[in-house]
Design a protein that fits this description.
The chain is α+β, with helices and mostly antiparallel strands and 143 residues long. The chain contains three helices and seven strands; from the N terminus they run E-H-H-E-E-E-E-E-E-H. It has one domain: Alpha-D-Glucose-1,6-Bisphosphate, Chain A, domain 4 (2-Layer Sandwich), CATH 3.30.530.
């Protein structure tokens, strides 16, 4: 069984600013809950673009992701390669003039854990999307 999770948050920032914060691996340390962030493989033609691989550490969790969509400034997507007991995890972030919509889908690796991961990912996506919007708005106010 696949699970779908989404968060939608309003913002008052230029979509380019939102996209740059989201797509630039090192910038995650400025706004997300990650304590470590590194690009371990370059994308093409943009270094942070399609094919880029990134590693993040949040608490005790370490994840490894690959960028699969890089459509500046409206759509960014990635898949999980390793780090959580999920199969087929994909996240798509859509940015428009007023809203950030972060959606993910996955199947649990272990039977019976789906509802737990759906709840955890719902909380995580809401917190992360709000933090992204807040940082983008703060950046927009700076001269």
């Amino acid at each position: 069984m696949r699970y779908n999770v989404k968060a939608q948050v309003p913002h008052h920032a230029d979509p380019e600013v939102v996209f740059d914060l989201l797509s630039t691996t090192s910038r995650w340390l400025d706004w997300s809950f990650a304590s470590e962030a590194e690009r371990v493989r370059d994308g093409s033609p943009d270094l942070e673009g399609v094919g880029a691989e990134r590693r993040f550490k949040t608490g005790r969790t370490r994840v490894h992701e690959r960028v699969v969509a890089f459509e500046r400034p409206r759509h960014f997507a990635y898949v999980l390669l390793d780090g959580m007991p999920l199969k087929g995890y994909r996240a798509d972030v859509h940015i428009d003039e007023h809203t950030i919509r972060w959606e993910s889908s996955f199947a649990p690796k272990y039977p019976g854990t789906g509802p737990l991961y759906k709840f955890a990912m719902t909380v995580f996506l809401k917190r992360t999307t709000k933090a992204l919007a807040k940082k983008a708005e703060a950046a927009a106010r700076q001269p």
